[in-house]
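Duplicate of #3305? Posting structure anyway:
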């Protein structure tokens, strides 16, 4: 080992794993961080680090990414994904940690041209510039087709042993993964809910109603979603989903849980402004998914009751946020 230490941003994809290996091949000691938020989880990063047998940790990124969803300086991708600013903020955080803990540089598995918008040469430069990481960021997989970094110039990293990957193809990456003998090769792509059109639609409604927070963003992953008055109503679609919704709401300590009495029906959760009107409206929406012929009563977890007629479908559709 050379004694040089590098800290990588690790989403759990194959490219991050290969970037780590390329550095390890020249004796650099590698550790990885996976950022955690309501929109992407850390499991893939953890598994990838296990395959490589390198030190790994999760870092909470919720506040950073939620703040970016209001007005990202570099704009959104196709949906609610502020990829350029998200990457830049991750690298900024990574740099802070690296400097504090005495790492020599940070790295990522980015490949020039791999994603048309967020990983073309211009975007990579923009991310580097706005994150102020030009002095410390290395992209080992495409380093040979990028300008030399201070780490290469100072001899901390041997540029000759870095790669020149370019474009969307994965042939070389898969060949390398086989040669390295990875026990598991992650499939390409996503996992980020911000790129999902249905979820993005929900999130936009949340943001535009001043209800956007990390916890609320987690809650709207469940159920059917209805926009009420400065509140969101969530209604479970199955017994399994009712259970998951309940677990999430209790775990985060948010929302008013409503349970229909006397007839089988879905669980409802009100997130946001707690008013008699919103809770009665949510009861009526929940009732529309039951076979009740008369008024239904819902009991809240705070032991309050709300009574409403079944809402008809046309009326209900006025409140629903489509997926
Ligand atoms: S896909 Fe999601 S996690 Fe990845 S850079 Fe874009 S916003 Fe960030």
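Output from current build:
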């Amino acid at each position: 080992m050379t004694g040089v230490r590098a800290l990588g941003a690790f989403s759990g994809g194959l490219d991050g794993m290969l970037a780590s290996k390329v550095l390890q091949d020249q004796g650099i000691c590698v550790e990885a961080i996976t950022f955690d938020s309501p929109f992407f989880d850390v499991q893939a990063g953890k598994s990838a680090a296990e395959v490589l047998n390198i030190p790994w940790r999760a870092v909470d990124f919720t506040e950073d990414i939620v703040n970016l969803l209001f007005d990202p300086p570099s704009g959104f991708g196709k949906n609610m994904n502020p990829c350029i600013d998200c990457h830049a903020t991750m690298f900024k955080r990574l740099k802070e940690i690296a400097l504090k803990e005495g790492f020599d540089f940070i790295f990522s598995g980015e490949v020039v041209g791999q994603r048309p918008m967020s990983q073309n040469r211009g975007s990579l430069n923009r991310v580097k510039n706005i994150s102020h990481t030009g002095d410390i960021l290395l992209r080992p997989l495409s380093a040979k087709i990028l300008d030399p970094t201070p780490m290469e110039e100072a001899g901390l990293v041997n540029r000759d042993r870095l790669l020149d990957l370019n474009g969307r193809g994965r042939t070389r990456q898969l060949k390398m993964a086989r040669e390295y003998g990875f026990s598991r090769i992650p499939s390409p792509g996503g996992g980020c809910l911000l790129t999902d059109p249905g979820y993005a639609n929900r999130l936009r409604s949340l943001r535009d109603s001043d209800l956007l927070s990390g916890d609320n963003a987690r809650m709207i992953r469940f159920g059917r979603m209805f926009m009420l008055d400065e509140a969101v109503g969530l209604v479970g679609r199955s017994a399994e989903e009712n259970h998951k919704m309940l677990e999430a709401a209790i775990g985060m300590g948010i929302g008013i849980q409503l349970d229909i009495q006397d007839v089988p029906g879905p669980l409802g959760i009100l997130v946001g402004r707690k008013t008699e009107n919103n809770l009665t409206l949510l009861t009526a929406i929940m009732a529309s998914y039951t076979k009740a012929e008369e008024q239904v009563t819902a009991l809240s977890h705070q032991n309050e009751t709300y009574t409403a007629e079944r809402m008809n479908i046309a009326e209900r559709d006025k409140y629903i946020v489509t997926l």
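Confirmed duplicate; merging threads. Residues 27 and 54 are 13 Å apart (CA to CA). The radius of gyration is 24 Å.
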